[in-house]
């Protein structure tokens, strides 16, 4: 990769990182009493002004806002990936596939709830150049067979054609689709990155996947009382833990025994020290957040810094959406603040 291209990516990403929402920004957002106040603050006091500049308050809802914010991330990645033609274009495919998966999951969620009339499609126009799926046609579909017809010429058809609407488990579907994404991503990392950069990015993904698998086991036992066979179907076949370790967690009798075993384990002592049940869902993103900040500050690999910024931006967008939802339903200010993931 060109040295100057790498330097350009590093400089641009670190400049954008410097414009991230601060602790003070979050406190000011939480102090707002209405969604209008939140939007006005984001438009006038943060780096989201150009995204929200022409927003129509009458049509604003959680989905519309989330899509507007994610537009920025796609545009940003599209531009920066051009600096690094050796690996940037390939990592851009990560963003495209992840966005496709999110849209598919969004549609299937509405389909199962018989609410496809609520579908909102609001992705960047350039996205259509990178996908084989005509997402605009999703709004005209109200059955699973029609959905399969629309994705017939894509890799997702092969992954999902065995399902019927009656046995469509969204947790299983999500696992299948993200397994495909991670498999593709690990292939890119191993092919295009060398030495320390490869190690940094593999670690960033593998630790997150390990923690996600742990959370999935806990939730399966605590809230769904799933059998071992069913839990295994929810596991991502990646990470550093290995199938033997995961099976030991899965084979625990219940969530209490699982929690005890986890706290005694190496991964539990390292990552799960906080109030367990109230924090376990946030731990994967918290750890990814900390590792991503470290990478942006110290890594000299543009793909590592680029992906780390994407992860931070996704978390920031989630924080904004959660604040808006919480203010809308008038949740206690302290609870809103405690649920954020941010840099202390």
TrEMBL record:
It comes from the Bacteria. One of its GO terms (molecular function) is proton-transporting ATPase activity, rotational mechanism. Keywords: Ion transport, Transport. Pfam families: vATP-synt_AC39. Gene3D superfamilies: ATP synthase (C/AC39) subunit, domain 3. InterPro entries: ATPase_csu/dsu_sf, ATPase_V0-cplx_csu/dsu, V-ATPase_V0D/AC39_subunit, V-type_ATPase_csu/dsu_dom_3. Signal peptide: none annotated. PANTHER family: V-TYPE ATP SYNTHASE SUBUNIT C. This is V-type ATPase subunit.
